[in-house]
Amino acid sequence: MPTATPSAADRVYAQVKRDILGGGLPGGSLVTEGGLAEVAGVSRTPVREALLRLEGEGLVRLYPKKGALVVPPSVDDARDVLEARVVIEEWAARAVWSRRADLFSALEAELEGMRATRTSGDVERLVEHDRRFHEILVTAAGNAVLTRTYQGLRDRQLTILAAQFRRDGDRIDRAVTNHVRLLEILRTGTVEGLVAETHTHVHDAVAALQAPR
After folding, report:
1. Residue 1: which pLDDT band, with cuts at 50, 70 and 90?
2. Which of 28, 92, 94, 116 is an S-S bond match for 138, by CB 3.0 to 4.6 Å?
3. How many Å apart are CA 195 and CA 93, to the nearest integer?
4. How far, in Å, CA of 100 to CA of 182, rounded?
């Protein structure tokens, strides 16, 4: 069955969201419908639709006749997201345990992608591999509602995560090490060990929010 071609609104939405999450459009940036329409080669109507979707996700705030302001996430926003993440990820760790062997190949691929960023310093690529590593586990746990909720949480967190990686180069090494540990526990550890490491993994990110800038 052929894959449906994304609509103009879908393409604009995906590109602007990618720019926000990757840091190309940092918090406080103002974009206009006309500017986005010109870059994308489309009319303003699909741009308006895309911006409305992004506003619904909390990534931009619309100002009539002015444009859309990229919303800079606060430390409180990020802490709330991380606390919600740990609830879903600890649940997923237990739910997926009996099927974990089916996930090793996909998880290893994301981990290898993270390792490659140690030399390239490509922060956008790093956060995408980080995101997919965890989404593999959550999606495999089999609850579609929690998976969608989790994906929305990660979208909001990635803007801050990318900023942390750019500010502190050592965070890349720590992120890779943490994911190696998670995969090792999945291979040779216990479900309780995975739950405990998942808790530690997310709460380390909470601690990083409070580190001096």
Report:
1. very low
2. 92
3. 6
4. 12
Could you tell me if 62 and 33 are in contact, meaning their C-beta atoms sit under 8 angstroms apart? no
DSSP state of 74: P
Tens digits of per-residue pLDDT, 108-150? 999 999 998 877 777 778 888 988 999 999 999 999 999 999 9
Do residues 206 and 93 make contact, with C-beta atoms less than 8 angstroms apart?
no
pTM, rounded to two decimals: 0.76
Q: How far apart are CA 211 and CA 213, in angstroms?
A: 6
Beta-carbon contacts of 184 under 8 Å, excluding residues fewer than 6 positions away, are: none
Contact yes or no for 140/104 (Cβ under 8 A): no
Rounded Cα distance between 146 and 124, Å, is: 25
Angle between helices 144-167 and 170-188 (to 10 degrees): 140
User: What residues contact 153, with CB distance under 8 A and at least 6 apart?
Assistant: 81, 84, 85, 88
Tokens 């994304």 found at: 6
Residues 155-169 pLDDT 10s: 777 766 666 666 666
Give the phi and the psi of residue 141 in degrees, each rounded to 5.
-70, -20
Backbone angles phi, psi at 67, to 5 degrees: 140, -155
CB of 45 within 8 A of CB of 52? no
